[in-house]
Amino acid sequence: MADKPTISMEEFKFMADRAGLGMDQAELDHLKPMYELYMEYTALVHSINFGPEEMVVEFHPD
Amino acid sequence: MATTDKKLHHLTIHEAGQLLKAGELSPVELTQAFFDRIAETDDRLHSFITLLSDEAMAEARAAEAEIRGGRYRGHLHGIPIALKDLYDTAGIRTTAGSRVDFDRVPTEDSTPTARLKEAGSILLGKLAMHEFALGGPDWTTPFEPACNPWNLAHITGGSSSGSASAVSSGQAMGALGSCTGGSIRGPASLCGIVGLKPTYGRVSRSGVVTLSWSQDHVGPMTWTVEDSAYMLQAIAGHDPKDPTSSRAPVPDYSLSLREDIRGKVIGLPRHYFFDPDPGVNAEVVAIVEKAVVELEKLGAKIETVELPSLEYVRAANTIIMVSEAYAFHEPNLKSRPQDFGEIVRARFRIGGLLSAGDYLQAQRCRQWSKREFAEALRKVDFFVTPTMTQPAPAFEGYDPNTTLMGRSFTAPFNVTGLPAISVPCGFTEAGLPVGMQIAGKPFDEPGVIQAAYTYQQHARWYEQRPAI
After folding, report:
1. Is the model's pLDDT at A31 over the cut of 80?
2. Measured between CB atoms, does B406 come within 8 Å of chain A?
3. ipTM of this predicted complex?
4. Signed CA dihedral, B160, B161, B163, B164: sign only
5. pLDDT for res B5
6. I need a surface site. Which of A55, A61, B169, B182 has the fewest CB within 10 A?
7. Which residues of B are known catalytic residues?
8. Do the beta carbons of residue B316 and residue A45 sit within 8 Å?
9. pTM as predicted
10. Using CA atoms, how far apart are residues B110 and B103, in angstroms rounded to an integer?
């Protein structure tokens, strides 16, 4: 993976408030580093160019 | 009295079933032996959340009467088993390992619960688990984490932690786990038992507490491959209560209990599972490499396969998992967040912070992976890999967040829905078990079972039991 993605506390708080998670500052401080780990995963899946590939609505393995 | 030299709690389901059927062992005697074993060990193992002594002994007496009356139902009749505490049990508390569901008493059995009852099994109790099937040992939940019977200072892995410790220590002959990213095969591998994750849709999820609708699987955890086959037989099959339940016919899995892997082609995705990586224990890989050589000696052909999507599958599994978990748990997460343990509360909240675009891109990644695996499975019969990247870590210094990143050897088969089994294949120098994973084509549980059975009968690791 490239540089580890980060997010500002201001932006992170905005997202948490928008999601209605109702977290105080201590909880935001605790969660932000973990969210940044997940950002590595989201960056990874967004790095793939799937072109017109569709998403199947219901998953079946067969 | 039973006519066996073995301790009753060390019998396999297969062995006990033969004695029960022949009237040489009483279900009452067998069930009592397991409660004695639990009383002897559970203060150290913490496998059980709820014990059902009175109910189980009543079920055992009923089974005894039926068998004596010539109404033997099959391999599970009179067999003491236990359930991860996320399988709904009518009238019996089902906590999912959380304070959120601490007092929840379902009114109906889950479909797997009901099917195990129909097969005549005896339910000993409900088992410890990582809260809502995610995270790791968490002392901020109301329940003690289960300990590894091979070394009590080490974790069992999870999330089916109590299922693994109970079966490994001889507290139950079999258990159900559930698996969204590896929660059946992982703890099975770390505790030296067999764990079978069937194809997605093979076993109903109805009445099983949800983590991730599209990735949750139900499956058995047992001491041997044949015992997993018997348990799968009891729970497999279409269920109209589960919209993703498959209508594919259920074969007779006992027909797969044959020692023959000659001519089968095993694909090794070396670049992801075997090549050196800072997050992968070299001793574990070396042990599995030896097992692969044994499979080759038994007549299998070994081929290296390339699956480029593997580098993305863990990310897809994680994003889909926490997004779907958030959707399921959102009301409680917002109204009573304090009732969640610290680990799960944080991860579920992250699910609420991911975007629809993230989720959809992860699903498209999943489609790619599914297609790529299917293409490879036209050329090989199975994939064989280590089940886990590491042997069981010690509790001391263990941080579940360190496992958030890096490789997962089990998640690819949750994302693709393919059947996969973990079978013991050796021990580390420190005496901790190592498992080998065998994954196959959709609904080829028979092939996966036969390959694992062939190896098991040749290697005979099941003859070693933890000294607890």
Report:
1. yes
2. no
3. 0.93
4. positive
5. 80
6. A55
7. 84, 159, 183
8. yes
9. 0.97
10. 17
